[in-house]
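Recap from last week: sequence in, structure out.
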Amino acid sequence: MFSNLTDKLELVFKKIRGHGKLSEKNIKDSLREVRQALLEADVNYKVARDFIKAVEQKAVGTQVLQSIDPGQQIVKIVHDELVTLLGGSTEALAPIDKTPTVYMICGLQGSGKTTLAAKIALLTKRKNKKSLVVAADIYRPAAVKQLKVLADSIQVEHFHLEGKTPQEICHEAIRYAGKNFIDLVILDTAGRLHINDQMMTELEEIKALVKPDELLLVADSMTGQDAVNVAEEFHRRLSITGIALSKLDGDARGGAAISIRKVTGCPIKLASMGEKPGDLEPFHPDRMASRILGMGDIVSLVEKAQETVDLDKAQKMQEKLLSAQFDLEDFLEQMGQLKKLGPLESIVGMIPGISRQLKGIQIDERDMERMAAIIKSMTIEERHHPHIIDGSRKKRIALGSGNSVQAVNQLLKQFSAMQKMFDNIGKKKFKGLPKGLMPFSMIR
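Predicted structure tokens:
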């Protein structure tokens, strides 16, 4: 999401590094460009103004340490102020310490409320807590069915009552949860295409009735400044306790994510990075600031890998890779492991330095699917010994996978090059990367 902003900020910092020392003039000139980059990224103009003022106050008159170049010092000041702007520290959801704990989810229609309900339920399930998702949106067509499908996919309980009002549904759901020793009740309330008094009154009544422990607003990052305006109004009427940013994997400019904490004064607690139930993570201001500045986020990547990757298999794979003993069967398995981590572009953006090296290169996940189809069309012997694949075998593999012979040749050529590459490198090349992520060096 922040790629355009990141690119522009990197250009500004590159110019600063070209100066032998910092002066008030080159600091102000550079920060003027930073302010322009923030405004173009749809950051609220007051937020951008105050941010630049805070950075300038710290930067002007700062003594540059001889061991640090001027550019690095400015980057650190910008990073620290960005962390402050995004909230300073990570704000956790209300603890699930009573039966039932109640989370109420609100927001406009299409912001991602129903999907977030399922994501929180999965997060709760992974902590060995029992949750109940409640379909209280009786207005949007198929809203109840959508939540039921999502609940079934992650194997959590779903609750809905036909012919009842949203207030009655929520009240009865909590009674049911209390009788059945359910730890967390997640209320998926109704939204509208825009804020109106009828919707807000309904939400106020539900809040008064159920007294939620957490009242989360889902803010659609793709809507830019509208998301900030919506958050202001919801907070004014409902006193929300936290914000969940949705669609952070999209290609919007990202200004809402930067502005919303400052404008509303309400903490961002969750970040939704994709459409799958597992694509949800706590919002860490310091990690998000690092991503925005193109510094990567290796900590989140390690955590994601620990949750989704079979570390024993990854360790064995790493040993094979470093000894150039891996074959196409291993490669197929490794692609499956990488797929579990989520969209490749978001993962690559978490690795410090890698995103810059791959700038301009499109990472098309369909390429991985095509390669997987080609490998699956091979026999086990061919996967273990690709050198035996001759012309007739290539034709059979191409036909079986729905690809051309040229595509098969391309895969075999790339695989051979990767084997040679890993034969020439040492373990220190990948120091700091989570186990199982070494093949990022192979992305072309």
